[in-house]
Amino acid sequence: MVEKTQRNNSKSVISLTLGILSILIPYIGLILGVIGVVVSRKATKEIVKTNEGGSGLATSGLICSVVGIIIQLFLVVSIIAFYSLTNVG
């Protein structure tokens, strides 16, 4: 009774990696998050078409990328607000 394991889509692994990095790396994480969202969407479409595994990885990559984008946008806006308020007078 040997089970045939299903291969994971490589783009889904890449999207999860980019999503995690977008949370951890300041400033560059914004760009990594956008790339992670694009790769995750491509991976999801490819998984449906080829019936590969890794749909959970692609979904978690999408979630991590979106969270990373939100965190990075908050960071950039807060730094801009800080510098604009401290240089008032």
UniProtKB/TrEMBL annotation:
DUF4190 domain mapped to chain residues: 12-72
Transmembrane segments annotated in the record for this chain: 12-39, 60-85
Keyword Transmembrane helix assigned: yes
Keywords: Membrane, Transmembrane, Transmembrane helix
The protein's name: DUF4190 domain-containing protein
UniProt source species: Psychrobacillus glaciei
